Amino acid sequence: MRLNLRNILLNNNSLKLLSLFFGFGLWYVVSQPHTIRLSVTAPVCFYNSTATKTINAPETVTLELAGKRSDIQRFDQKNCALHLDAQQFAHGQHHLIIDEKNLFLPATIKLVNCIPSHVVINVTATKEELNACIT
User: Fold this and answer.
1) 100 CB contacts (<8 Å, ≥6 apart)?
2) 130: pLDDT confidence band, cut at 50, 70 and 90?
3) Out of 4, 28, 37, 49, which could bridge 86 as a Cys pair, Cβ 3.0 to 4.6 Å?
4) Separation of alpha carbons 71 and 106, rounded Å
5) Nearest to 63 by CA among 114, 112, 117, 97
6) What would the mean pLDDT of 32-55 be, rounded to a whole number?
7) Rounded distance, CA 63 to CA 77, Å?
8) Other C-beta atoms lying within 10 Å of the C-beta of residue 118
9) Rounded distance, CA 41 to CA 19, Å?
């Protein structure tokens, strides 16, 4: 019995397998450059803080990020945080608008929205600093 190429290609199982590979390939090509959005809850972290200041600020912010599917899948959500330099804040109340420079995001991922859009930071002196100023 001789099998010819036409019978193999037109076989029902061969067509199903070929359709499966073609469909998967098409889906992969179309879905990769698609921009998706991701919602992440990020902590608010202060660096360069001293023991003479007490900083009151929200503990977390909700970020809405956008980027290509492949970039979002590679993005490490656990290490995403709002980083603020505590030395730039004097005593009193400060309103800070959150932007991408405080988040250290990759260049391929953009900040779309942040809730809250600005953070209110209250900086007060500790008792040790107040005692040192009085004496």
Assistant:
1) 110, 111
2) very low
3) 49
4) 9
5) 114
6) 86
7) 11
8) 12
9) 41
Q: Structural domain boundaries of the chain?
A: 1-31, 33-134
**pLDDT > 60? residue 49:** yes
Q: Which residues contact 131 (CB under 8 A, 6 or more apart)?
A: none
Return the structure tokens found at 8.
Answer: 């193999």
User: What pTM value is reported for the model?
Assistant: 0.65
Rounded distance, CA 92 to CA 37, Å? Answer: 36
Of 128, 122, 134, 129, nearest to 89 (Cα)?
122
Q: Which residues pair with residue 2 across a beta bridge?
A: none
Q: How far apart are CA 85 and CA 50, in angstroms?
A: 11
The tokens describing 24, both together, are 């998967």
Which CATH number applies to 33-134?
Answer: 2.170.120.30
Phi-psi region of 72 (alpha: psi -120 to 50; beta: other; left: phi over 0): alpha
Task: Choose among 114, 110, 119: nearest CA to 46.
Answer: 119
Rounded CA separation 135/92 (Å):
22
